[in-house]
Amino acid sequence: MSAPHARDHVASRPTWRCRACGVAWPCSAAKVRLLAEYRGNTPGLMVYLVTLREEATAQLAELNPSTPLPDLHRRFTDWVRVRST
Fold first, then answer.
1. Running DSSP on this structure, what letter comes out for residue 8?
2. What is the pLDDT of residues 29-39, one digit of tens each?
3. Which of 9, 34, 45, 62 has the smallest number of Cβ neighbours within 10 A?
4. Which residues make Cβ contacts (< 8 Å) with residue 50, sequence separation at least 6?
Protein backbone atom coordinates (compact mmCIF):
# COMPACT_ATOMS: atom_id res chain seq x y z
CA MET A 1 0.00 0.00 0.00
CA SER A 2 1.46 3.38 -0.96
CA ALA A 3 1.64 6.39 1.32
CA PRO A 4 -1.11 8.97 0.82
CA HIS A 5 -0.22 12.02 -1.24
CA ALA A 6 -0.71 15.52 0.17
CA ARG A 7 -3.67 15.99 -2.17
CA ASP A 8 -5.39 13.04 -0.46
CA HIS A 9 -5.47 14.90 2.86
CA VAL A 10 -8.92 16.42 2.48
CA ALA A 11 -11.76 16.83 4.95
CA SER A 12 -14.37 14.15 5.32
CA ARG A 13 -17.62 15.95 5.93
CA PRO A 14 -19.50 16.17 8.28
CA THR A 15 -16.91 14.83 10.74
CA TRP A 16 -14.09 17.10 9.52
CA ARG A 17 -11.50 14.36 9.91
CA CYS A 18 -8.79 13.86 7.30
CA ARG A 19 -9.68 11.18 4.76
CA ALA A 20 -6.05 10.06 4.51
CA CYS A 21 -4.79 10.06 8.10
CA GLY A 22 -7.93 10.34 10.22
CA VAL A 23 -6.87 13.29 12.38
CA ALA A 24 -8.77 16.54 12.78
CA TRP A 25 -8.67 18.44 9.50
CA PRO A 26 -6.70 20.42 8.46
CA CYS A 27 -3.97 17.93 9.32
CA SER A 28 -0.27 18.76 8.95
CA ALA A 29 -0.12 17.50 5.36
CA ALA A 30 -3.20 19.54 4.40
CA LYS A 31 -1.67 22.66 5.96
CA VAL A 32 1.53 22.21 3.97
CA ARG A 33 -0.47 21.73 0.77
CA LEU A 34 -2.66 24.76 1.46
CA LEU A 35 0.35 26.96 2.19
CA ALA A 36 1.90 25.88 -1.11
CA GLU A 37 -1.33 26.41 -3.08
CA TYR A 38 -1.90 29.86 -1.60
CA ARG A 39 1.74 31.00 -1.60
CA GLY A 40 1.69 34.76 -1.96
CA ASN A 41 -2.07 34.94 -1.35
CA THR A 42 -2.52 34.84 2.42
CA PRO A 43 -5.79 36.82 2.28
CA GLY A 44 -7.23 34.25 -0.13
CA LEU A 45 -6.14 31.40 2.12
CA MET A 46 -7.74 33.07 5.14
CA VAL A 47 -11.03 33.63 3.29
CA TYR A 48 -11.04 29.98 2.22
CA LEU A 49 -10.25 28.72 5.73
CA VAL A 50 -12.82 30.96 7.44
CA THR A 51 -15.45 29.73 4.98
CA LEU A 52 -14.56 26.12 5.79
CA ARG A 53 -14.48 26.89 9.52
CA GLU A 54 -18.05 28.21 9.35
CA GLU A 55 -19.16 25.14 7.39
CA ALA A 56 -17.46 22.87 9.93
CA THR A 57 -19.07 24.75 12.83
CA ALA A 58 -22.54 24.18 11.42
CA GLN A 59 -21.95 20.54 10.49
CA LEU A 60 -20.27 19.56 13.75
CA ALA A 61 -22.99 21.29 15.81
CA GLU A 62 -25.63 19.38 13.87
CA LEU A 63 -23.73 16.10 14.15
CA ASN A 64 -23.28 16.35 17.95
CA PRO A 65 -25.75 18.94 19.27
CA SER A 66 -25.11 18.12 22.94
CA THR A 67 -21.30 18.28 22.67
CA PRO A 68 -19.44 21.59 22.95
CA LEU A 69 -17.51 22.40 19.81
CA PRO A 70 -13.71 22.34 19.85
CA ASP A 71 -11.79 25.57 19.24
CA LEU A 72 -12.29 25.72 15.49
CA HIS A 73 -10.69 29.15 15.18
CA ARG A 74 -7.41 27.73 16.46
CA ARG A 75 -7.78 24.62 14.33
CA PHE A 76 -8.66 26.31 11.04
CA THR A 77 -6.94 29.68 11.03
CA ASP A 78 -4.52 30.27 13.93
CA TRP A 79 -1.74 28.33 12.22
CA VAL A 80 -1.56 30.73 9.26
CA ARG A 81 1.14 33.36 9.68
CA VAL A 82 -0.13 36.79 8.81
CA ARG A 83 2.55 39.43 8.28
CA SER A 84 1.88 42.85 9.68
CA THR A 85 2.78 45.79 7.48
1. G
2. 999 999 999 99
3. 62
4. 76, 77
